[in-house]
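Listing S7. Sequence submitted for prediction.
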Amino acid sequence: MMDYIILDIEFNGRKFASDLPMEVIEIGAVRLNSSLQHIDEFSSLIKPVYFSNLNSFIKKKTGIPQEGIDQADGFRKVITDFSDWLNRSQSVLLVTWGGEDLKRIVFDTRMHKLDDTYWMAANYFDLLKGYLRHTNVTNDVSVEAALLELSITNEGSAHRALDDARMTAEIFRAIFNELDFERIQQYKDVYSNAKERRLVKNAVRDMSVKKYVHDWDFLVEHYLKDKVALTDPRKLVELQTYFASEVTKLRESAIKATG
């Protein structure tokens, strides 16, 4: 039988002011059985390696006490405990609000030189995207805003992992029958960012409007030059693939419109 693991993490670091990695500092999860009954929970703080002191923004946002972090186990111990907890189920589907939670677990697993096989193969469902499809909107929304829109009473403390997982579980249960589980996915490494992909997408559209040939080298020269670094061959291949996909979608759309 399938259990649903509603997962949330909190992390610490200085994303734009340091080359050191962001680190997971808290994992919270709720286990729902196949009948969507809340049957178990997991919660643990994690002592970080690079930033032993919580930065002021994270302290204010989460309310996590410095003493709790100081006394917490390290990532290796906590991720082992969490894996053992997950394995109490015969089969699980991880449910996250966006893609950041699983990404951070993968990154920290690698940082601690642990095997990432389990996490790379884990099936997960992005409930944020599911919610956006359900409401037919395009702008990201917070868990708290979704609860408000669904008229669900918010009883937790936002930005603590377990409370966020509990709140996300309520959203999951509320719209479960409307979700498209054909969209279950697995984590994939991504080398470009959303802004870079958006530049490519907009360039493809602009080239179409101006009746330019959809040529990759032309796009690089006229739309990406001095805006996107293409020195990483993995990013280059990824953006070329994305470019080809956008061109195909545009052509298929044009065929439908004329058909």
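Caption to Listing S7: primary sequence and predicted structure tokens for the chain studied. Strands lie at 2-12, 23-32, 38-45, 91-96, 124-126. The chain is about 50% helix and 15% strand.
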